[in-house]
Amino acid sequence: MAESRINAVDVVVIVAYFLIVIGVGLWAMYKSNRGTVTGYFLAGRFMTFIPVGASLFASNIGSEHFIGLAGSGAAAGIGVGAFEFNALILLQVLGWVFLPVYMASGIRTMPEYIQRRFGGQRLRVYLACLSLLLYIFTKISVNMFSASLFINQALGWNIYFGILLQLALTSLCTALGGLTAVIYTDTLSAFVMVLGAMVVAIKAFIEVGGYSGLQDKYMMAIPNSSIPNTTCGIPREDSFVLLRNAVDSDIPWPGFVLGVTASSIWYWCADQVIVQRALAAKNLSHGKAACLMAGYIKILPMFLLVMPGMISRVLYTDEVACVGEACKDVCGSTVACSNIAYPRLVLGIMPPGLRGAMFAVMMAALMSDLTSIFNSSSTIFTLDIYSRIRQKASTRELMIVGRIWVVVMCGVSILWIPVVERFQGGQMFLYIQAISSYLAPPICALYLLAILWKRVNEFGAFYGMMIGFVLGISRMICDFAFPQPKCGDADTRPGYVKLNFMYFALIMFVVTTVCIVVLSFFGEESEPEKISRLTYWTRFDAVDESSVVPNKTESFEMVNKVEEKPDKNENEEMKIEDVDVVTEGNDDSMCKKAYKWLCGLEVGHQDAVNAEQLQEERIKKSSSLKQNPRISLILNINLGIIFSGSQNSGPLHEKLNEVLVSKVQEVQAQNFEKMVEIYDSHLVLGTLAFLWLVYLWESYLLKRQCNVLKTTDEIPIELRHVLDKETFEKSRLYQLDSKNFGFWNSIYSQIETTLVLLFGGIPLLWWLAGKVLHRFGYDESYEILQSMVFAILGSIYSLITGIPWAIYSTFVIEERHGFNKQTFGFFVKDTIKKFIVSMIIGLPIMAGLIYIIKWGGDYFFVYCWIFTLLISLFLLTIYMDYIAPLFDKFTPVPEGELRTAIEMLAQRIDFPLTKLLVVEGSKRSSHSNAYFYGFYKNKKIVLFDTLLSEGVMPKKEEEGTEEGTEGGNEEQGRDDGGVDDGNEEQNVQSSMDNGEQPETGEEVKADEKTTAENKEEKKTKRLGCTNQEVLAVLSHEMGHWKLNHTVKNLIISQFNTLFCFMVFGFLVHWKVLFASFGFASSQPTLIGLLIVFQFIFSPYNELLGFLMTVLSRRFEFQADRFGKDLGYAYPLESALIKLHKDNLGFPVADKLYSTYHYSHPPIIERIQALRGKKND
Length: 1176
Fold this sequence. Notes:
It is a single chain. The chain is mainly alpha-helical. Residues about 30-45, about 550-585, about 595-610, about 650-680 and about 955-1020 have low confidence and may be disordered. It is globular.
């Protein structure tokens, strides 16, 4: 390729470019204040959005993108471009979610944020070390290797000689100018890179005959060195597909959407290189605008880098797409030479002069990336590691150490270059993503939880991160121990290593998140100072200047001590050292003066003080997060454009997919039987394995709770004045009976589910539904009818198998402990009525849902979501008026003191009360409750009659119906008897006190029997609540409304519904899914819904259920606080205790069991919160 190398004209262009870069760097040195830490590392925080946005783009698009993106495009098609569209979205997440928190907190490094958020040092130091490792593995070594390839192709120089030449200029620029020089050189580099890449792309498309020519010729670009009877050297069938097959592709769409996003959130939202540039913006508006600007530019790499790489394969097939030993003669590698695609294209199609310009562009990309990394790594090492070793280090020492660290990083990275060359089949860009996927997801989980969840603490964060790190580093070691085989060789690696790194990233993220969340409940809640202005929800808290502008210990800026005036003599010397002032005396040589100027240490005393004060003012201003409303509106409009544009990037995907859709379908048809064999049992067994894992976990928690019930014999101190020993023992026995019943019921359910899945119970029931249809003259084409029959048969089966357990629970457990008030006849009628109503409501909804899915097209999931939302709102509106009265009797609360007080309370907080009702719950059970219902301004409050104290409601009249006799009269007799018993016992005692003798004989025996019965009934007599206690309970319920808890739950549920339907949309056409559950010849929609929502989503449902339980407890604390603020603290505490006693709730719970299961906080925690002894 000697004829394609650069010549004298190219050299002139290159030299001219580098002279411009040096000029920009010197100008930045003059402009910036490099004598302070903030000035050197954060550019004084005075940058506008244009240089910051350009720097964000240039810091990302380094030489590894020119080499890596183009190389992966040449090797595997446009799929790698999806990473750029993903980045477009995550840049906005940085600007709108993460950056406001970073600016509000006044931090300068990411480990510093973690230290402020959680306290302690171990997390900060750990993240600093991990970040430096990631820089070595994924940034510096990759950049140097990619640039050396270009130099080798263009000049024929030795790779390592070219690396040293690059590093010399890059390190000099970074070490001398700090972040200001980096940002300004990045700005220049960004414009040069975009313009140069555009020229190459236009020229390349002309050479290949446009996009249509690329489509035709790329699939035919097969090298002469391809291996017969293998796919080696043959373009992928899905080369023009962005998001690819979920099973056997290089970029599976679920792994990309979820797994890559997890690791990319670290890069774009929590990596020092990117965040440091965003923090240099003068305020939040400029920071957001910079993210928007970088996002718009990120659309270009697909067309400027990926597709030109594919064109390079078309034009230079035998070189770029070579296989095996043939590559050794081309690029010196025995793996692949796709990484030379871009330099080979430039040297092949560009004329002299422009080749030199593009060489300069490559050097610009390298320098922009390396200068960013060098500055950020020196920032982390200096402020987060070295300062912990040398706590009394002066500013001058820190400045020098930061510059020396750059040299150390370079040396270590050079040693890692040979590893980069061979990893991931020679595709450099996939190597970067793989290493990031092994180390970054735990960092992503940590930062997301730190910013979005106030409950996470240092204990959970640290040990959760350790678990994630061990998991990731073990996979990384395995990847090096079991390298990917050469093309054509058998893959004998363990399955753990074969798993696509994107799926592994998802697993790591989920495991780390769950570990951090669970472990956080074992630690103390974070103190207010570790939350204020350090989470997204508290970013607008009152400003604490000491936290926004760090002191000397944290910032190593010596301003505070400048104001001190110690005594002269010996203290004078200490003052000068503390302030770290460098004075220019006559003794300084010219060399020393030059050294001070180059390193930014020539600043005088007053200049340093003034500069530092100005920078502190900038920090305070940016941390206020104030935005001009007009500017904010413009930014938000652009955000909407970005998101809508990313959603509409599908047409490109669809257009490209049309080209090869027939071929892809043909390949899928050929491989379907093989895939079924692989996954037929694996999906079902995997589902069962998870279900049994959950069952064992639940059983373990149940055992812990039973141990608490068996061993706890002391009443908690908070309840000793209100809870007697007898009630405490009754509640303990009731809970033990309930838990034992739950244990055996769960065993039965688990075995039943296992047998149904293993022996094809679902296909059998579908077959029976088809047989029923045949009896009425319908065939399988009537899928909706068959689905309705299937639902009816399944409901009947569930009803039959569930009735024995319901009977035992109601007529044995509940009746044994005095709760059941139903007769068997009433129970049977109620069960039948529930079944009929559920079928009348459920079947039409199910039919409508199936119809929408079958005829809704590609966006059916949106229509399904809208349909379910409308149905939910409709049922919410009519439930109280038309459905609930079918099962219970509702009567208005009578006029009186209680009703008036409730209406006044509702009016006090603007609660839109329309009806106030009492439900006759006592005909079923003596459990008590209260709730409100209704949509928008049509709210109804419902009180259980068992909640109210006797005498509040008028005396019930006997009803002629069986229900009235069996329910209402029985309860009325019990209530009346309770009152009479008390009077009778009091009268007997009074007569004895007056010296009167009771009657003897049979009359005495009758009286003794009556007294014993009365005492037994008195034991089960409910307490009820006074009017003030009822108001306190309702203040709690209205607090849920006032604090928008119902709205928040509705929003979460709707987002979850939309997400589930969207995922279902991807899975419903996956034939393997149906085949694995016994439906190889058909794919009924209802069966797909059942499989996906009940089985495939089971891990997601478990996680979501736990998170909603955590959220529910938080809402309960907030609602209690709301009632307390209304003045109902004492009656609310009293009501909670009474309800707990009435319902035989046990006041002591195992910590782990309650954390996982309790949607309401334990009674003791609620009492402590009401008394102000526990933070809510």
